[in-house]
Known about the structure:
The protein is an alpha+beta fold. It has 2 helices and 3 strands. It has helices at residues 45-54, 71-82, and strands at residues 11-14, 18-26, 29-35. It has a 3-stranded antiparallel β-sheet with strand order 1-2-3, with no helix packed on it. The termini are far apart.
Amino acid sequence: MLVLSRKVGERIHxxxxxxxxxxxxxxxxxxxxxxxxxxxxxxxxxLEGPAREFRPPQPTRDEREEPIVSPADMTAxxxxxxxxxxxxxxx
Length: 91
């Protein structure tokens, strides 16, 4: 964890597109401004736990999507498409 001291009006840049600016210091209360893209989720610390309850669970490594068709199935499909299918006549 990086701990920094800042004065009013000073900024902290996080990555390429997030900026924190110290706006006001009054007693033991600090007001900060956060500038970030809309897709960056920003929550106060006390809301992280309750917000986690509403998020769908992230799939584990074993639960991630597997290919619908296996390599063996692909070989069989290629063989089928390479095989000549004779027209079928019904009298």
